[in-house]
Amino acid sequence: NFSLHFASMNYLGELSALLTAVLWSGTSIAFSSAAEKIGSLQLNINRMIFASLFLITTILIMGYDFNLSNTQFVNLIISGVIGLVIGDSFLFKSYQMIGARISMLLMALSPVMSVILAFIFLNEIITPIGIVGILITIAGIALVVLERNTNSKYHVTTLGIVYGILGALGQAGGLIFAKFAFNEGHIAGFVATFIRVFSSVIIFLPIMLMLKKYKNPYKIFSNDKSAFGATLLGTILGPFLGITFSLIAVENTKVGIAATLMSTMPIIMLPMVKYIYKEKLSWRSITGAVIAVGGVALIFLR
Prior knowledge:
The protein is mainly alpha-helical. The protein has 13 helices and no strands. Helix 3 (40-62) runs antiparallel to helix 8 (189-210) and helix 6 (128-147) packs antiparallel against helix 13.
């Protein structure tokens, strides 16, 4: 029992990253439903407001403190703005222009960008086996994502691809700044997430109000209860639990490895899609899943 506990603690970062991928898979299904009903911008702000309320409540109940240094605060705020405001805005824009399928493939570039950024800014070294694992994981993800949904409603445009790449870069950059904060000393995951999310609301909401892009959420949700339910569920799985576990992952393992394991989201979504939408899965999507899991295993054996 002790050895089991020790092993799980030893891989706390990796296990948290995989759990993050599971939570984000559920989030993407809930949020795609909510976005169809209320629009991506409205969804982006509402999910961050809800998440802030959940997080501060949890922090007060658990009695976590905000004893952070100024640089830790600054790094988490920058992390939130880059990842949640800028990165997610580009990702939602990419969804609208080239569709979720290609956008998700481009998001698979995030771990590669994370590794490069971590090499430049954090002096992190990834072993050759780690690099092979990352490449295999990305290849498996590409195999699945490229095939999913042959609906040609979207035309691949250069601008759409640029938005998708910027979305991936935003996610990678957000992780790096979070890692800067953690390298300075321990921060409770819920506290770190609250600072990222709440600071994003403080910056994002006034801009959207000034541009008259944000509508009264009470009016919208009282007209559509299912949109409220989908937004709430997505918020609990994503910005509340998902981001918290992603930060625990970043604190306890290398940024590139955490990002790669979180990128298994399109693979984890396959059984969800089969179960929820009753979609038939092809041999190619299953092969891709197996290949990606093989890559993940290689990363574990770094």
